[in-house]
Design a protein that fits this description.
alpha/beta; Rossmann fold; six-stranded mixed sheet; four-stranded antiparallel sheet
Length: 244
């Protein structure tokens, strides 16, 4: 059974439809990308899936339970890392556990075992200003994982990084996702990023936004190093551009 099912969701702002009749699925251990132009309703859809907004129509089902309009069930990471500047990295990462009622000592012990896996070993006692943009995003992703290990929503988490750092983060992210097996729904308007990272890509186009296509990326994971330079990669890009 799909871990996450979004069924026929429609949302309006001030009686103007923003997204209309959207149905998508996210299966176990899958990375699915929502690709479309800026302003097309991607973030609005995430607000519905996360429970921050109640849709005009439709429902959100997680592991068989209806969570429509109920926040706190799915991790949601925004474009900015939003780390708290006055807390150390380990305490930033532990915030989801503290919110759930864990004692600080226990929360620190639980998050500490993941620092090496996320490439953050040695940063536990540092503060966000002492880390590079890429390292802050790693910490934010670990915090997202600590909130919920079933499914996560990532809203353009690498868009603020420079090209070289973004490339490093892509390779690191694919490696980590293979290890932790967290299902992820990922927003981007970067076609290269979508093809590189995704198992499937939903195209969200028009105003109001609608799902107009679904593209399966057949390249096996972990992706080979030369995949972004391959003819297969270019063919996926051509296919997406034609359908957009």
């Amino acid at each position: 059974m799909a871990e996450l099912i979004v069924k026929n969701v429609t949302l309006s702002y001030e009686q103007k439809p923003v997204i209309e009749d959207i149905s998508i699925e996210l299966h176990g251990n899958e990375l699915v990308c929502l690709l479309g132009a800026s302003g097309g309703g991607k973030t609005s859809l995430f607000n519905v899936i996360s429970g921050l907004r109640l849709p005009d129509k439709g429902s959100v089902i997680l592991n068989g339970a209806d969570i429509t309009g109920q926040p706190g069930n799915i991790s949601y990471m925004l474009q900015k890392d939003l780390l708290l500047p006055y807390k150390t990295i380990e305490d930033n990462v532990a915030v989801p556990l503290l919110i759930k009622g864990e004692k600080k000592k226990t929360a620190r012990e639980k998050v500490s075992r993941y620092f090496d896996e996320f490439g953050l070993e040695g940063t536990q006692k540092k503060y966000p200003y002492q880390l590079s943009g890429g390292m802050r995003q790693r910490a934010a992703l670990l915090r997202t994982y600590m909130f919920s290990r079933d499914a996560a929503l990532l809203d353009e988490p690498f868009s603020a990084l420079d090209t070289m750092t973004k490339g490093d983060m892509h390779r690191w992210y694919l490696k980590v996702m293979e290890e932790i097996h967290m299902s992820t729904l990922f927003i981007t308007h970067d076609i290269d990023e979508a093809v590189l990272l995704s198992d499937r890509i939903y195209l969200l186009t028009g105003k109001p936004g609608r799902i107009t296509d679904e593209i399966l990326i057949r390249e096996k994971k972990p992706r080979r190093q030369d995949f972004p330079m391959s003819e297969e990669f270019r063919n996926y890009k051509r296919q997406i551009l034609a359908r957009l």
